[in-house]
């Protein structure tokens, strides 16, 4: 799920952030998913195990709302129509509801891999002197 991003680079530089903000607003407004009533996190592909687990961890109301938005957008797509402008997703309503859960699951998986790759050895006289008893396969 995680891909390379310029976001941390841009966030560290306020002048660049101020320059990019109107461009990002224009991009999100013209991408079209809001005109179908969707949020940005609705566009995340569901094929990975991480996203599947994140969807299971969603609160029931948020999961129901997501399914409703997806079905309504699919119906609009079949009819080749957009929603009435009053039903478009507003910028303030387009918050990340799935991405934080995905990041949390990726951190859990990374921690699990680190713990699974550790080799723990019994202390011997040589290791007592140096204090090294845990090694990593990495």
Automatic annotation (TrEMBL):
Pfam families: UCR_14kD (PF02271). This is Complex III subunit 7. InterPro entries: QCR7, QCR7_sf. It comes from the Eukaryota. It is found in: Mitochondrion inner membrane. Belongs to the UQCRB/QCR7 family. The keyword Mitochondrion applies. GO terms for cellular component: mitochondrial inner membrane; respiratory chain complex III. Keywords: Electron transport, Membrane, Mitochondrion, Mitochondrion inner membrane, Respiratory chain, Transport.
């Amino acid at each position: 799920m995680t891909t390379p991003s310029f976001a941390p680079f841009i966030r560290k530089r306020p002048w660049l952030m101020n320059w990019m903000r109107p461009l990002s607003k224009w991009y999100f407004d013209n991408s079209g998913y809001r005109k179908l009533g969707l949020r940005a996190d609705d566009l995340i592909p569901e094929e990975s195990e991480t996203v599947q687990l994140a969807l299971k961890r969603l609160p029931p109301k948020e999961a129901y709302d997501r399914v409703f938005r997806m079905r309504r957008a699919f119906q609009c797509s079949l009819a080749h129509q957009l929603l009435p402008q009053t039903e478009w997703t507003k910028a303030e309503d387009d918050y990340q509801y799935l991405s934080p859960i995905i990041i949390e699951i990726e951190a859990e998986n990374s921690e699990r891999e680190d713990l699974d790759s550790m080799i723990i050895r019994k202390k011997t006289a040589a290791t007592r002197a140096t204090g090294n008893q845990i090694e990593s396969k990495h």
